[in-house]
Amino acid sequence: MATEGEPGVLVDARYGKDKVRVFRVVRDPTTKVHNVVEYNVTVLVEGAIETSYTQADNTVVVATDSMKNITNYLAKVSPHVLDPARFALHLGAHLLARYTHIQTALVTVDQLRWARIGIAGAESSAKEEGRPGHNYAFWRDGADRRFVDVEVARKEKDGGANTAVAKVSGGLRDLLVLKSSGSAFENFVRDEYTTLVEVDDRIFSTSVDLRYTYDEVDVRLPGDEKGLVFGEENVRGKGNDGGVYAWDDAKIGSRAREITLDVFAHDESASVQATLYKMAQRVLSENKGIEKVRYVLPNKHYIPVDMKYIGVDNTTPRNAEVFTPVDSPSGLISATISRRR
């Protein structure tokens, strides 16, 4: 609302805590095996908070420092902490259960990669020999990150203060890939502005950003005094089978990553656009709970070094062996593919 005489009106508002760093160790007292996760968490809220902007009324403000503390506390007590999507749903549902004036909680969890030495470690043959991995030693096996975005919104008009609906997306960021053959780019528009040479074989490299979106999920907010008790029984899908595919995002995310790598490696690419489309179609085909897929694929260019000055051919595709990596300018290709209904 605006005070009389003010030229503007508040039309939307949200606030929260960004870049909450969380590292969690889960110890099995019987096997002595440890599991670890490392997250970067963003927590934002919307609701009846407008007076904090328009009237300097802090009585409606849950401090962002409290949001950080809640995130850390949930990381300690939540049974879902090893699963980013389940943890984000738990955190969002807890915020709505605890603070009745909050209408929507938005939680983003970025997961950094840690793999158990002896299972995924390239330097170890333990997997091939059938030996278990180390109980508590890990290594960073890639710079790409899995993420989930969860929006939990109260459904007071449709079912009372204890029900909500969740929108869940997952995906990958910064998955850097390259192949030195199996990619062409020909038959594009040629006019007076065209200087690019057609090639039937080239280096194809990109940093994959993938986002896939699930159907909405009905959420029953925690009903205990502290608003903490939350599990699979609190969520239900909107489809006829009631399945909550987002609850299994860990498996689906791993499968989407494998599909992305497999299509990239084996597709005889006519263009980045064509390969992107094949990736998305396979993600939809093999994961029926996903409603749409979006890829963003920036080109990572490798330019053959011209050695004509010394009488060496290093520019024709079959002879090009020395390249200069070029950061900019770069192509940027993206598309969203939705499930056909």
From TrEMBL:
Pathway in which this enzyme or protein is active: Purine metabolism; urate degradation; (S)-allantoin from urate: step 1/3
GO terms for cellular component: peroxisome
Binding, 5-hydroxyisourate: T64, D65, F185, R202, V272, Q273, N299
Superkingdom to which the source organism belongs: Eukaryota
A matching Pfam family: Uricase
Cited PANTHER family: URICASE
Protein name stated in the entry: Uricase
